[in-house]
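Task: complex structure prediction.
Instruction: return structure tokens for all chains below.
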Amino acid sequence: MALQIAKRLLHRRTTNEIFTAARSPTVGLFSSLDRNYSSSSSNLIRATLFPGDGIGPEIAESVKQVFTAAEIPIEWEEHFVGTEVDPRTQSFLTWESLESVRRNKVGLKGPMATPIGKGHRSLNLTLRKELNLYANVRPCYSLPGYKTRYDDVNLVTIRENTEGEYSGLEHQVVRGVVESLKIITRQASLRVAEYAFYYAKTHGRERVSAVHKANIMQKTDGLFLKCCREVAEKYPEIKYEEVVIDNCCMMLVKNPTLFDVLVMPNLYGDIISDLCAGLIGGLGLTPSLNIGEGGIALAEAVHGSAPDIAGKNLANPTALLLSAVSMLHHLDLNEKADKIQDAVLKTIAEGRYRTGDLGGTSTTSEFTNAIIDHL
Amino acid sequence: MGFESSNCKIFKKKLEASSLKFPTTMMLSISKSVITKFCSERIAKYAFEYAYLNNRKTVTAVHKANIMKLADGLFLESCREIASRYPSIKYNEIIVDNCCMQLVSKPEQFDVMVTPNLYGNLVANTAAGIAGGTGVMPGGNVGADHAVFEQGASAGNVGKQKFVERKTANPVALLLSSAMMLRHLQFPSFADRLENSVKRVILEGKYRTKDLGGNSTTQEVIDAVIANLE
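Output:
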């Protein structure tokens, strides 16, 4: 297990050196170093933080403590979900919050429970639409020490997040017959394919697999594949393959080590990314990063707000911490990111301090302190 | 790694197309998915009837109605209607992404699953992977007048020349599908004999094809099954 971590570290360090030496033009589109970060005079990077609801504030506190202990140059700008609908955004998220993310270009979001009611959009949908978050990236790797039926999982799922089957265009033709439209555009497919290959290159990944069902949906998934192929030609050093979704599912549950980076349209991405989360232990441990136009990155914890354990110091901050780590990778703060990731993995691997959902009895604060000790 | 005690059956609607194509430009492509009450009811009825006749306890509808509210909403409505006619069978619903996550961690919670076309394919293949692969999963396609039985999940290995040459294809899936066919034809005792023999051969472990971790040929497995028939 330690060998796994060491391997991953070495690989990433050496490839980063090679890539920073020779940057391709597309790198400028996504690289955060080329951006002007709104920073205060002490050269800190400002990042928006949405603690969220339920266990959100506790785990956000955990992240802040770990970051302070690790001396990460990030200054948090906290925003909370309001209790009234903001007419400018049609939801509980205020315009100021969204502007903050647009300005800072980077953010971290805890779990948000959309209040039930009418007349407003879901919070996640608001964020996605307003910030144009087009790719959802989930690195899935087995946590050494937390045993699932699959060891050695080390893949990344990149899901197109704006169109496809989830375009929301449905209508009833006659009573008893409903049609649902699936939209695939060249622009969106190219965008997500570009990001997938860029991610593969900057993170030292060797292969990108496009998941599709083009044998049946020849035009829609065919267009998606065409775009992926176009982008693949620009990255000859990265292997590209195409996998039918059925085959992909089967292979994932039989031998997940066969996959490296997966890029997919919306529906398959939704299902496969959750499937991969299941392989490593569930949503409570899975990091997630959303990429938007203009280099915006919003890391988020994809688990729920767990209102039943809110405020009791029992929540597991792993998902939010690992999401924050992927945010740091996006900011090219790779050494710091690896430091925190190692500390988290070591704490879980040791087994002495684990929260309830991992089968232990520690509180959030004990777990956090153990991570800080391991830094 | 293995999943013991996962024993679920998956039904998916095969008739409705997720493939109605539109003329497209280079920039945009649209595909239509059609869900009808008639077909949804039909598959739900088959699922519940199957569960009832085979002493299954739960039927789970797999859907994505939180996003595709009208289409999968209609599917769920039909399932709920049919469920009310079978009070002895438990009915629940699960969103497809959660379903896949549960399948890879706790597949034993599922019994009979009914899904629309696309998810059915995914779920069936995921379940096949958990159960041991395409080589062991039986399947059948049932219509109003006819029924065709074949391997339950395909993973692109069909028609590969090297399996033909090396004679190492796994016959278990097709044998179990034939047992399903016998059951459909109402020959339950024959079906039982065939199934038990196949199960015994696999359990013994002496004759297994490559995909199950052994190195027997197809013929050796078949001979073993015949030898084990009572």
